[in-house]
Write a structure and sequence with these properties.
Helix content of chain B: 25-40%
Shape of chain A: globular
Order of helices and strands of chain B: EHEEHEHEEHHHEHEHEHEHEHEHHEEEE
Radius of gyration of chain A: 21 Å
Shape of chain B: globular
Structural class of chain B: alpha/beta
Helix content of chain A: 25-40%
Oligomer: heterodimer
CATH topology of the largest domain in chain A: Peroxisomal Thiolase, Chain A, domain 1
CATH superfamily of the largest domain in chain B: Thiolase/Chalcone synthase
Structural class of chain A: alpha/beta
Distance between the termini of chain A: 30 Å
Number of domains of chain A: 3
Strand order of the largest sheet of chain A: 5-4-6-7-1-8-14-13-9-10
Distance between the termini of chain B: 17 Å
Number of strands of chain B: 16
CATH superfamily of the largest domain in chain A: Thiolase/Chalcone synthase
Chain lengths: 431, 429
């Protein structure tokens, strides 16, 4: 085992999603039980079978950048803009001015990111000159000669997944390690895991770690409607996302960006930083049978690394997708690890507030629990009204409950089998 | 002491052959894998050529290959290369080793977009006179026209999931996509996962094809591709003064990374050790690398430091060598920055002169080439090297393979957006 005495702590939180555009407004919504699932407003969703989401109705990327940096926004798809904005908020919250306070070569960036759909208006003229009367057939000769040349030269760069970490490294002069994990719903948890190893192995002193995603555009929504088990509760969006509830009917999509400042403990102490919490364990696995065994192995590995027992955990921040099969096997996995703990360890499912943020989801949800530890109160999960008897978990609902222990576990997985878990510890006296 | 990581299996599906042996031998012959684009009618595109995979049939590698009929070629290439690497390492059978300690870390690209349907739908919902797109119509028609499984198979985590499922690899499962640096970064970080004790074995590498209408369109718009349509096999000419851009390739390269003691205990063939890994960012511009090679040089330096080797130990460099004006100049500068006078004594060649640019998969295939060089003692050349560029003045092994015993080799990969990766491999002691 590579022994390292270096410790990695969280010193800044930047979070934008359907329930707030910074961590204090997000906390207010969480502590008041106010969810953000609403009818889609940013485009005409009337042609879709699903018309609800955890949307940010009034996001303006310009508000987060200096005037001379704003022209760069043209080259950033919405998820990249959300990432850049969250990075700005995280740096402010960490009270870091990177160009003054950090050695650029010891400053890294690590993101969870996903496929980004092209803005249809950017290809519409090219498509139009190349189309044929036959549906589904485009004339490639016309595309090559007349279509291709009318698209913006930098078109492709606007949608590359690694451009979140790239733009952030450029804006803040982060010359250290820079990676982009593209593992769907566990992407940003794996990004945090990797960044944790990088800080511990002395590869960086300070890292911006995050994830962002937005599927709330026509092309992505069509695709998600085709292959994701989405909730069809269009008439009752506030109650659509129902983790571990008997009446759940699928997941709800959301959008957002989250960035955490992850810092070497000594580096943080030297500059007198406020320390929210420490990352003490990470684990990852693959669940080839979608049985919940992957969840068990990821959590067990993370607990082992953190050197704690299941009973040391204050609460479990669940994946809680609210899809019918995945809540079942997640609950069984959680029961296998935590089922013997007395009193039972409560489960918190933040997707009930913000929906599924995909590649940006893991850190967005983890941030909710970091805020809970910071404020000493665990928010209730929404819409868990009729516990599914097949799901052996105790979901905390209703008014916030006082935090009782110093650790929480965040778990996430993809419907294809990738699993990840992270253990976070509140540091008493420094939180 | 930290855990050491060795390479115990390799697999490759490349434009120069669908085995590691063919890949290497065809490079030694100086063959080009470049030809006319076959995947679609590119005859009116600015670039009409690329380096395709030839004679590929997934059914030769795995049973029930129809499982992947809706997957992109990226996944199909990856499954085949993974099967080769696992078989090579003697780990194909599911009962070999503790599969929960055996993970996957790929730098694999996206699947292939349904270009014809997408553009047709957009055109149908668009009024070019008013420049207005009727979104509701696009959505309604899209729900009927797109194929659900073909769409979901484009997602970026599906390849790593398919491999884990097919071969029952239940350890940590990662995929990174840092443009042209992706599979090298995957191998570097997979090495770190083994060093940290999160796994004993990792299947790592990459797979990608951007030889499709959107890929060629995107790169042509960036003017990153060579447009030497008259002589496609001469288009990829790294370090040559008349280079005018890279040539798209496609394929997959997979390696089995294993903790040294684990490999020894089971009596595995150890091809090489992963000795050094460096990872930095340019933090300069989205479109250009730093003109002084700042990030690239720092990356080579970090990898050297990680390996504990001295500059004289490096016997060969497999360059990123894309054949773009900027990359080849800046990479040369970065190598000279770190190696000083010694730089002129290290042969540097670019596999991309023959293979084209496999984008996310490039680094893995090039690292495999480094391992083969150490085992067989012959360096692949940089082909199409005709007109020396005064700013590129290293020994690029021009045009003909060369015998040289190499104990330690270095491979560079630099991604669009500024990610720099260097890997160093060495023969087992």
């Amino acid at each position: 085992m590579a022994a390292s005495s270096r410790r990695a702590v969280l010193t800044g939180i930047g979070v934008l999603n359907a329930i707030g555009l910074d961590h204090s407004s997000v906390w207010t919504s969480l502590s008041q039980g106010r969810g953000g699932i609403r009818p889609i407003q940013t485009f005409d969703a009337s042609g879709l079978p699903v018309r609800i989401a955890g949307e940010i109705p009034s996001f303006d990327g310009k508000a987060y950048l200096e005037k001379e940096q704003r022209k760069g926004l043209r080259m950033m798809a919405r998820p990249i803009q959300l990432a850049v904005a969250a990075a700005q908020k995280a740096l402010e919250d960490a009270r870091i001015n990177p160009k003054k306070d950090l050695d650029p070569t010891r400053f890294g960036v690590e993101f969870g990111s996903g496929l980004m759909a092209t803005d249809l208006t950017e290809i519409a003229d090219a498509a139009s000159v190349s189309a044929t009367p036959q549906p589904g057939v485009v004339d490639l000769h016309r595309w090559g000669e007349k279509g291709l040349p009318v698209i913006q030269p930098l078109w492709m760069l606007k949608y590359l997944p690694n451009m979140m970490a790239c733009h952030i490294s450029i804006l803040h002069d982060a010359q250290g390690p820079n990676n982009t994990i593209t593992e769907s719903d566990v992407a940003s948890l794996l990004a945090l895991s990797e960044a944790y190893h990088i800080v511990r192995r002395n590869g960086a002193d300070f890292m911006l770690v995050g994830g962002a995603e937005s599927k709330l555009n026509p092309l992505s929504m069509v695709r998600q409607c085709l292959f994701e088990p989405l909730s069809h509760r269009n008439d009752d969006p506030a109650h659509a996302c129902r983790p571990f509830d008997r009446d759940r009917d699928g997941l709800v999509l959301g959008e957002g960006g989250t960035v955490l400042a992850l810092e070497d403990l000594e580096h943080a102490r030297r500059r007198g930083a406020r320390i929210y919490a420490e990352v003490t364990g990470v684990g990852a696995s693959f669940d080839s049978g979608r049985s919940g065994q992957g969840v068990v192995r990821a959590i067990s590995a993370a607990l082992r690394m953190a050197q704690i027992a299941p009973s040391d955990v204050d609460h479990i921040n669940a994946h809680g997708l609210a899809s019918i099969p995945s809540d079942l096997y997640e609950a069984r996995g959680l029961y296998e690890v935590f089922g013997k703990c007395q009193p039972t360890i409560p489960v918190f499912a933040p997707k009930s507030y913000i929906g599924n943020l995909g590649a940006g989801g893991g850190v967005a949800e983890l941030a909710a629990s970091v805020l809970a530890m910071h404020h000493g109160q665990l928010p209730g999960t929404l819409n868990h009204e009729h516990p599914d008897p097949e799901c052996p978990v105790t979901v905390h609902t209703g008014a916030p409950r006082p935090v009782q222990r110093d650790h929480f576990v965040k778990v996430g997985f993809t419907q294809n089998g990738q699993c990840a878990a992270v253990v976070i510890k509140r540091i008493p006296g420094e939180g | 002491m930290r855990r050491r990581v060795v390479i115990t299996g390799m697999g490759a599906i490349t434009p120069l052959g669908n085995t590691v042996k063919e890949l290497y031998e065809n490079q030694l012959q100086g063959r080009s894998g470049v030809g006319a684009i076959q995947a679609f009618d590119a005859t009116r595109f600015p670039t009409k050529f690329a380096a395709h995979i030839k004679d590929f049939d997934l059914a030769r590698y795995v049973p029930a290959a129809e499982r992947w009929k809706y997957s992109g070629v990226n996944t199909r290439f990856a499954v085949a290369a993974a099967q080769q690497a696992l078989a090579d390492a003697g780990l194909l059978s599911h009962d070999r080793g503790d599969r929960t300690r055996f993970g996957v870390y790929l730098g694999s690209g996206e699947g292939i977009q349904d270009f014809q349907n997408l553009m047709s739908l957009v055109a149908h919902a668009y009024d070019p006179q008013a420049r207005k797109l009727t979104v509701a119509q696009f959505c309604r028609e899209g729900m009927n026209a797109f194929h659900a499984e073909c769409e979901s198979e484009q997602e970026l985590h599906t390849t790593a999931a398919h491999i884990a499922t097919a071969f029952q690899l239940e350890g940590p499962n990662y995929n990174c996509l840092t443009a042209c640096a992706a599979s090298s970064q995957a191998i570097g970080e997979a090495t770190e996962l083994i060093r940290e004790g999160e796994a004993d074995l990792m299947l790592s590498g990459g797979s990608h094809s951007m030889i499709h209408p959107m890929g060629v369109t995107g790169f042509n718009l960036l003017t990153a591709l060579s447009t030497n349509n008259e002589e496609p096999q001469k288009a990829s000419r790294p370090f040559d003064q008349r280079r005018d851009g890279f040539v798209l390739g496609e394929g997959a390269g997979m390696l089995i990374l294993e903790e040294l003691e684990h490999a020894r205990r089971r009596g595995a063939t150890i091809y090489a050790e992963v000795e050094g890994y460096g990872t930095t960012a340019d933090a300069f511009r989205v479109t250009d690398s730093h003109p002084d090679g700042r990030g690239a040089a720092a990356c080579i330096r970090d990898a050297m430091k990680d390996s504990g080797l001295s500059l004289e130990d490096i016997g060969y460099i497999n360059a990123h060598g894309t054949s773009t004006q900027v990359n080849d100049r800046v990479e040369t500068l970065a190598i000279k920055k770190i190696f000083g006078e010694q730089a002129y004594r290290i042969p540097v060649s670019s596999s991309k002169s023959m293979l084209g640019h496999l984008i996310a998969a490039a680094g893995a295939v090039e690292l495999i080439t480094c391992v083969m060089v150490m085992h067989h003692g012959v360096l692949p050349p940089t082909i199409n090297y005709e007109y020396p560029d005064p700013e590129c003045d290293l020994d690029y092994v021009p045009n003909v393979a060369r015998e040289k015993r190499v104990r330690h080799a270095l491979s560079n990969s630099f991604g669009f957006g500024g990610q720099n990766i260097t890997l160093i491999v060495g023969l087992p002691a």
